[in-house]
Amino acid sequence: MAASAQQVTAATRSVSDNPEDERALKAVFTAYIVCATLWLLFATAVGLLLAFKFGAPDFWAGEYLTFGRLRPIHTNDTF
Fold first, then answer.
1. 8 pLDDT exceeds 60?
2. CA-CA-CA-CA torsion for 53, 59, 63, 69, nearest 10 degrees?
3. Which three-class secondary structure string do you get for the chain?
4. For the CA atoms of 46, 63, 66, 78, what is the dihedral angle to 10 degrees?
5. What's the pLDDT at 60?
């Protein structure tokens, strides 16, 4: 079954003919990727801190840096 010329044209046409829409979508996509990368780096840093604290519990001994408080932060930020 051969595709008609109208179907082929519709398939190759751009989603938006307005360049302003494409710039806005590019900005949203870029912001999303940057935020996701920053959260991934933060979660990795917390995971690294947890690895140190798991091996040496007195490493950076502080009320807010206990294993029980950092583990949920790492788990929630990673997933």
1. no
2. -10
3. CCCCHHHHHHHHCCCCCCHHHHHHHHHHHHHHHHHHHHHHHHHHHHHHHHHHHHHCCCCCCCHHHCHHHHHHHHHHHHC
4. -30
5. 81
Angle of CA points 74, 36, 45, to nearest 5°: 35
> Tokens standing for 1?
């079954």
Q: Which two tokens stand for residue 29?
A: 């996509």
Residue 46's CB is within 10 A of a number of other CB atoms, namely 19
pLDDT, one tens digit per residue, over 10-52 is: 556 555 667 778 888 999 999 999 999 999 999 999 999 999 9
pLDDT at 67 over 60: yes
